[in-house]
Amino acid sequence: MSRIDLFRTFLYGVSATFIAICFMLFPKEAYEASSRGMTVWWEVVFPSLLPFFILSDFLIRFGVVSFIGTLFEPLMRPLFRVPGSGGFVWAMGLASGFPSGAKYTTRLWEEGHITKIEGERLVSFSNASNPLFIFGAIAVGFFQNAALGLLLATAHYAGNLIVGLIMRFHGSKLDETTTNQNKSISMKKAIKKMHKDRMKQHEPLGKMMGDAVQSSIHTLLMIGGFMIFFAVLNQILEMIHFSLVFQFIISIILNWMEMPKELSPGIIAGLFEITIGSQRISDVYQASLLQQAVITSFILAFNGFSVQAQVASILAKTNIRFLPFFVARCLHGCISAILTLILFQPLYTDRILDSTLPASQQPRNEESLQAFLVHMYEWLTTYGSTITLVCLSAWIVLSLTKKLN
């Protein structure tokens, strides 16, 4: 046993013991923090992610991902140096939110669609916040400003695209892919590839459905555990004033950027958990809306240690390294913050001024989409807990029935 391994074991043991003691010293605060984390997972995360997880499992098993991969190969390979199937992961990751991109990337690696280096590139830009969260929770729920949603979403997704273009250079010397790739779209070849992958599945439909549900719920339970743990950890660190040192450092950086130091507690909270950090940033009345938007955009793109821990847990069963993902998150945070600063005038200020125009000149399609996303988020917060309860109850019954049989 090396000294490094021995020191790491000692560090893990001391850290876990210290956190456990803090939990016992502050049971009330720990309970309240765990309740907040549980509520977000119970009402929003579980019901919004479960359908995407189950659907993606079916799409992979039925060969649809191979079909999409063959069609998107001429696009994804030159731009991001990943297979065409990465287009499926990217789209599903943007639609369903983090840590979906990591789950789908892992699945493609298990199916042999991507290599280690390609997986590290793909996971770096396929994890993003979903539109429901940006428009519903952040813009409307925290800032009470629906118009801010377009600015945050544009900066977030554009930053994600730029990160993907940057990460294409990752692992160039270790790239295992061949240079002879498809340069044209072939529908016939895509259909044949889909059929070939589907024929590999010999399990009956009922068994595939059961496996998809089991895998999806297991992943969601893991996500819920991380959300609750980091919500409690963030609260405990505040109770013991451990975060004051980091707040002092961040305050110096904020002073250099000519931003109020009152933003530092929200930034610290956001580094651990996105929801808590964004909410606290929205409550800082000493900061302007532009300053709040820039910091919130950084927090959204950084993902927070909670989401990063979820990604690390998902990637642990593969040879895909976590470090490139972390570097990409730091890049994404900085790029999104800069884009928010640049786009604030055209995408927010000018749109607010344009809102005084007659109704016939308003951008109906944009407003309708924004209203739909906000409505969907409000619907989830109202009925999401019921959906989660029904799904978990059905899962428990099916699991017990399967074991008894």
From TrEMBL:
<feature type="transmembrane region" description="Helical">
    <location>
        <begin position="293"/>
        <end position="315"/>
    </location>
</feature>
<feature type="domain" description="Nucleoside transporter/FeoB GTPase Gate">
    <location>
        <begin position="44"/>
        <end position="132"/>
    </location>
</feature>
<protein>
    <submittedName>
        <fullName>Sporulation integral membrane protein YlbJ</fullName>
    </submittedName>
</protein>
<feature type="transmembrane region" description="Helical">
    <location>
        <begin position="239"/>
        <end position="256"/>
    </location>
</feature>
<keyword id="KW-0472">Membrane</keyword>
<feature type="transmembrane region" description="Helical">
    <location>
        <begin position="79"/>
        <end position="98"/>
    </location>
</feature>
<dbReference type="InterPro" id="IPR014226">
    <property type="entry name" value="Spore_IM_YlbJ"/>
</dbReference>
<feature type="transmembrane region" description="Helical">
    <location>
        <begin position="215"/>
        <end position="233"/>
    </location>
</feature>
<keyword id="KW-1133">Transmembrane helix</keyword>
<feature type="transmembrane region" description="Helical">
    <location>
        <begin position="322"/>
        <end position="344"/>
    </location>
</feature>
<keyword id="KW-0812">Transmembrane</keyword>
<dbReference type="Pfam" id="PF07670">
    <property type="entry name" value="Gate"/>
</dbReference>
<feature type="transmembrane region" description="Helical">
    <location>
        <begin position="7"/>
        <end position="26"/>
    </location>
</feature>
<feature type="transmembrane region" description="Helical">
    <location>
        <begin position="46"/>
        <end position="72"/>
    </location>
</feature>
<feature type="transmembrane region" description="Helical">
    <location>
        <begin position="380"/>
        <end position="400"/>
    </location>
</feature>
<dbReference type="InterPro" id="IPR011642">
    <property type="entry name" value="Gate_dom"/>
</dbReference>
<feature type="transmembrane region" description="Helical">
    <location>
        <begin position="132"/>
        <end position="158"/>
    </location>
</feature>
